[in-house]
Amino acid sequence: MKLAAVDIGSNAIRLQITNVTHYEGMVNFKKLEYLRFPLRLGKDVFHDQKISEKNRRKFLKLMKAFKLLIDLYEVDDFMVVATSAMRESLNGKEIVEEVRQDVGLKIHVIDGNREAELINLALWNFIDDKSYLHIDVGGGSTELNIYLKKVKVASRSFKIGSVRSLDDDKTPATVWKSMNKFITDHISKKDLITCIGTGGNINKIFEMSKPSKTKRYLDIAKIKEIQLYLESFSYEDRVNKLNLNPDRADVIIPASRIYLAAMIAAESKKMIVPDVGLKDGLMNVLYERNKSKKP
């Protein structure tokens, strides 16, 4: 069985095609194709409230390319979702309809809570009876989820994101205060909180930390160290000396500030970085609705 997931984010758009097989009672997910295209829809929307005509044309071409790959791989089922940039865009609904008619892809524009739910589906293997704060930082929003003894006790989406924060951080102070209050209201001082970080930026920070092969976690001190290291370079040097992608080199610092702010509010010293995201949650949904079908 072949499944495909498309994640239309504020900073980039991703396609993953996965082959699912069954062998001796085990279910195996093997990635066949993964593409990430840096079409920053959030830059348009968070400045001008709409997607520009130039990026609209690019987006339509990209959806056609993704649909061709989905067809070429003979995918059995797929799902396409869009997050904060598309849902906040004044011409978002119009573009979604254009893609449906011209390309044959139905785009589901989801809210922050649904986005968090989908990501959470991919996190269960990392959650046990301890206390966790899940932090997912995207281009336009940050989703927070709190787990106590394997039960999600609170969840909320905030308009704080790496792309949204680029120009001298346009995020109002009230939003930051609201995020901190959400954390402190739902976490007891007696709880020892471990954070779980998802998103492309925390994965890059983890990669830069030169981790051991067996442990996928970061101490808060290491995140601060890497943040200071990144801040010591100009944007051009982050691209040319550190070899970061241009669409990563500018957002990684504001993203690190969001992760650190949440960790500090939770008084957490450790973050697990499982390298899962929205696309993995979509794969779970697709598998569940197709697993009863014959191969």
UniProtKB/TrEMBL annotation:
MF terms in GO: pyrophosphatase activity
Domain of life, source organism: Bacteria
Matching InterPro entries: ATPase_NBD (IPR043129), GppA/Ppx_hydrolase (IPR050273), Ppx_GppA_N (IPR003695)
Coiled coil: none
Signal sequence interval, chain numbering: none
Ppx/GppA phosphatase N-terminal domain ranges (all copies): 29-283
PANTHER family: EXOPOLYPHOSPHATASE (PTHR30005), RETROGRADE REGULATION PROTEIN 2 (PTHR30005:SF0)
Protein name as it appears in the record: Phosphatase GppA
Organism (species): Rhodonellum psychrophilum GCM71 = DSM 17998
Origin organism lineage: Bacteria, Pseudomonadati, Bacteroidota, Cytophagia, Cytophagales
